Inverse folding.
């Protein structure tokens, strides 16, 4: 049927036989290749397991190195704190030395004290230099640790990316590229020590830009001084001030911080009665006292003499006030307060215009000083009432938070994982009294002061949660209700305080008023209610223990409530 098939059958069979033999050869070749590849895969798996074990070992080394780095950073932070404290002591001694230099002509004893202060200053300077050397050594150790960490990360990355080491130039190029990437990663790592801009503080409020290094600096530990009435042992306090001699009055003025007016006072004053019967206009005309706060300081002191009652606030001198400004977070005003010789007695009589004279124009800073004065009133002007270091309490109560200093608030920020924003509170005026007593101060205000961008919603939410936990549920609810009230004006960091102007109708009554009646004190004295922002607001029961007067008011309200409940008709 197919004759051509039979004719070519042999040739066809031979061709298929050749193909079959070739396929057999290919099969054997493939089997050989498969076996070779299997051996290679097994070798590669062995190498991978070795690299994994090596990677685990390097990871352990990396963890240990990171722990060492954290310890170095903590040690460096403690050294920085010690350095700041010593610098504060140096500035304090410089201030005392300057006061002593102004009194060189009044005896060899004061000169001897000045020499002692100079010696102490030199000793502290040597301590600061020693701390600087230690700081440099730890910085070198820290740099060496960083380099070791970077090299370990590079080795791990190179090992994990490939198994064969390329040629030497290519390997150097890869190492340099990874080194740059790792350095960028290191300096953007969240656990690194953030460098604060101590030379120029970035502040939301333009007033904060006035904060500068140097000038009057004080450490956290305020010192008590003697009362103005007991400076000189030669002055018998049983003798009325009106009977003091001219030299006694001049000596008292110098000890009271008003020594620049002694020469003119000696030409004008006959005895103490001359000052007691003088008016502020006489102080300005006869003594050349142009500064209104100096006149106020002198008036308050003279007014206290006839009463023979030594106020607790009078035991705090103007040097203590500069330390107090550090505690409440307003060190940028220390030069103005020191120049005006504002002491503890003057603090409770400060008015809005007085603060404007002291160059305090920020509304937030006015509220900060107001709340800080209220805390002093509540603690009877105890110079150590503000807490500067964390205690043993795990969850502080609002009555404890109200006594926190600015530094203690910064420590709290570090404790709630916001350490990188803590330095922004320097010069902000934020302290525990402002946080608790000011109803308009909220977590949003704190976020603005910390310079947390609005787009970082997670950080702001975390801050709001920590803030609510800090102030307590009741205070949080009160702040929220106050913020939702009609006519509420939010507290901003840029608002300014303007001096109050007298209307035309007020001029006719101005001469009839006494100085005490027309004084607009920044914090009213002995007020049971906390007056903030022009609104009389009683503290919540959560603030019990903050103020004795507030405690009496709260107890009275509770008693009235209990009596009303007992007299109400039963259903």
């Amino acid at each position: 049927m197919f004759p051509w098939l039979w004719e070519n059958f042999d040739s066809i069979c031979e061709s298929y036989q050749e193909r079959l033999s070739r396929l057999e050869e290919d099969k054997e070749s493939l089997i050989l290749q498969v076996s070779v590849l299997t051996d290679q895969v097994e070798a590669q798996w062995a190498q991978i397991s070795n690299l994994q074990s090596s990677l685990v070992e390097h990871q352990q080394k990396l963890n240990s190195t990171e722990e060492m780095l954290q310890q170095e950073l903590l040690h460096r932070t403690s050294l920085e704190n010690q350095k700041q404290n010593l610098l504060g002591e140096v500035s304090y001694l410089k201030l005392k030395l300057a006061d002593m230099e102004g009194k060189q002509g009044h005896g060899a004893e004061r000169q001897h004290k000045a020499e002692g202060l100079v010696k102490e200053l030199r000793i502290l300077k040597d301590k600061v230099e020693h701390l600087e050397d230690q700081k440099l050594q730890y910085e070198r150790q820290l740099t060496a640790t960083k380099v070791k960490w970077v090299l370990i990360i590079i080795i791990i990355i190179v090992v994990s990316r490939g198994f064969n080491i390329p040629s030497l130039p290519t390997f150097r190029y890869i190492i340099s590229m990874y080194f740059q990437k790792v350095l960028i990663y290191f300096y953007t790592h969240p656990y690194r020590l953030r460098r604060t801009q101590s030379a120029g503080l970035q502040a939301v409020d333009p007033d904060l830009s006035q904060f500068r290094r140097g000038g009057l600096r004080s450490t956290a530990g305020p010192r008590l001084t003697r009362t103005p009435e007991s400076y000189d042992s030669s002055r018998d306090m049983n003798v009325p001030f009106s009977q003091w001699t001219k030299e006694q009055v001049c000596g008292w003025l110098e000890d009271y911080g008003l020594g620049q007016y002694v020469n003119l006072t000696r030409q004008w004053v006959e005895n103490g009665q001359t000052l007691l019967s003088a008016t502020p206009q006489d102080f300005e005309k006869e003594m050349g006292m142009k500064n209104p706060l100096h006149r106020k300081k002198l008036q308050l002191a003279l007014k206290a003499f006839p009463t023979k009652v030594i106020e607790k606030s009078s035991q705090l001198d103007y040097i203590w006030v500069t330390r107090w400004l550090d505690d409440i977070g307003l060190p940028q005003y220390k030069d103005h307060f020191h120049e005006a010789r504002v002491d503890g007695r003057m603090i409770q009589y400060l008015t809005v215009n007085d603060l404007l004279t002291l160059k305090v124009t920020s509304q937030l800073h006015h509220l900060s000083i107001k709340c800080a004065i209220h805390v002093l009133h509540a603690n009877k002007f105890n110079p150590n009432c503000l807490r500067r270091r964390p205690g043993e309490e795990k969850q502080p109560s609002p009555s404890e938070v109200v006594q926190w200093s600015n530094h203690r608030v910064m420590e709290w920020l570090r404790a709630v994982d916001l350490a990188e924003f803590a330095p922004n509170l320097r010069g902000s005026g934020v302290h525990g009294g402002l946080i608790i007593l000011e109803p308009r101060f909220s977590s949003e205000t704190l976020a603005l002061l910390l310079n947390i961008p609005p787009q970082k919603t997670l950080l702001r939410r975390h801050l709001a949660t920590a803030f609510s936990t800090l102030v307590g549920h009741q205070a949080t609810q009160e702040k929220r209700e106050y913020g939702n009230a009609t006519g509420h004006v939010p507290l901003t960091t840029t608002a300014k305080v303007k001096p109050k102007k007298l209307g035309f109708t007020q001029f006719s009554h101005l001469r009839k008023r006494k100085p005490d009646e027309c004084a607009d004190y920044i914090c009213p004295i002995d007020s049971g209610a906390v007056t903030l922002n022009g609104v009389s607001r009683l503290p919540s029961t959560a603030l019990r223990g903050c103020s004795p007067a507030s405690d009496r008011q709260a107890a009275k309200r509770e008693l009235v409530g209990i009596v009303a409940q007992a007299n109400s008709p039963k259903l």
User: Anything to note?
Assistant: Residues 41-187 form one domain. The first helix runs from residue 3 to 7. The mean pLDDT is 76.
